[in-house]
């Protein structure tokens, strides 16, 4: 666990970026307000995690999953965030599925290329063997003619 309570805070750079994206252009925020928002966000994340952990424990699991977080949001009475949260989760899953499929396709293409290179190598070896056999036969034919 964390050694100091400050260790549980979210990174200031992340909080600052989120705040800037949320505010209209030209609006500034004091360092004190940024710090307060950072602490509030950290407390919210810890509370949501604790609630989600309770759902995981009820399910006799040690790993939190998306369903646990969604259930925690409902328990915390944040129903109005459920729809955007579910949409973001679906978008994330689609992105991950696309990455997985792209990775699998890349692996298949690599395997095909390796198979093709292996076949080319085998053909070259077969051709070399055929050339050697023909040379031996020609040599044998020449030897028979000489005798």
Brief rundown of the structure:
The protein is mostly helical and 147 residues long. The protein is built from 4 helices and no strands.
Key features of this structure:
single chain; 147 residues; mainly alpha; Histone, subunit A; 2 domains; 4 helices; 78% helix; elongated
Give the topology.
Elements: H1 12-22, H2 31-58, H3 66-75, H4 82-146
Helix pairs in contact: 1-2, 2-3, 3-4
Structure description:
The protein is mainly α. It has two domains: 1-77, Histone, subunit A, CATH 1.10.20; 82-146. The protein has helices spanning 12-22, 31-58, 66-75, 82-146. Helix 1 (12-22) packs across helix 2 (31-58). The longest helix is centred in the C-terminal third of the chain and has 65 residues, at 82-146. The protein is elongated. The chain starts with 11 loop residues before the first helix and ends with a helix. The relative contact order is 0.04. The model has no long low-confidence stretch (mean pLDDT 84).
Query: How many domains would you count in the coordinates?
Result: 2
Please give the alpha-carbon distance between the first and last residues: 93 Å
Principal-axes geometry comes out as: elongated
Largest sheet: none
Q: What does the radius of gyration come to?
A: 33 Å
The number of helical elements comes to 4
Oligomer kind? single chain
Per DSSP E runs of 2 or more residues, the count of β-strands stands at 0
CATH topology of the largest domain, anyone? Histone, subunit A
Write down the overall mean pLDDT: 84
User: In terms of structural class, how would the helical and strand content be classed?
Assistant: mainly alpha
CATH class of the largest domain: Mainly Alpha
Helix content: over 70%
Q: Give the CATH superfamily of the largest domain.
A: Histone, subunit A
Order of helices and strands: HHHH
Corresponding CATH architecture of the largest domain: Orthogonal Bundle
**Percent of residues in β-strands:** under 5%
Low-confidence stretches: none
Protein name: DNA polymerase epsilon subunit 3
Subcellular location: Nucleus
Pfam families: CBFD_NFYB_HMF (PF00808)
GO molecular function: chromatin DNA binding; protein heterodimerization activity
